[in-house]
């Protein structure tokens, strides 16, 4: 059975160490996490979402303009006590998604965690994060992905990522296939899934594909409109789409 919301993860890994090269010139003087959409930094959109879902601690990795991001998070903490921010320092080398989680394992604990990118914003009628939490079942799965229809999202690739079975199981598309659903940057996982990953940078995706072959990756596709903020044009498109809806991340 899926976990009740009071058993949803209380710890999140927020992936904020990317270089944001596609976001230039907006990232010439700041990390991508501090690019604003609708008057609010991308990382604050995600931290507000996580706080609303009951997350108590957010481990944030830093690399590019790390000092500036840490200063922003310190200022935020003065007015937003939750989630409590813990820094995972990747100044020497950015470690990608899987390497970033592995590097932060001593800070994350052993219980299931949220893992969240900072470059997705969305409009929802009900909490999409809570929908993922309701679907999470640690007996049947090691990873539970937040997914969206390619037809109901902006800025993601049109060819999609995955297919979703009736029981919520995920199948990654084969080469040449077009899938109806795309991963939108938030998931729950057991942190141990990265423990055997290589030293240095590596991606989570190969781990997911291996686990999916054993039916250990599930997903949920809540209703809403998802926007990937990957470059200045996508940022402008997201702001235009958010017009009239209030800031993404408001509840």
Structural descriptors:
251 residues; alpha/beta; 14 strands
Please characterize this protein's 3D structure.
The chain is built from 7 helices and 14 strands. The chain has 251 residues and is α/β, with parallel strands linked by helices. A hairpin with a 5-residue loop joins strand 10 (162-164) and strand 11. It starts with 10 loop residues before the first strand and ends in a 9-residue tail after the last helix.
Class of secondary structure makeup: alpha/beta
Radius of gyration: 17 Å
Instruction: Give the strand content.
Output: 15-25%
* SSE ordering: EEEHEHEHHEEHEEEEEHEEH
How many helices? The count is 7
> What overall geometry do the principal axes of the alpha carbons give?
globular
Question: How are the strands ordered across the major sheet?
Answer: 5-4-1-6-12-8-13
Alpha-carbon distance between the two ends = 28 Å
How would a crystallographer describe the biggest sheet? 7 strands, mixed
Helix content class: 25-40%
Look at the structure and give the mean pLDDT: 92
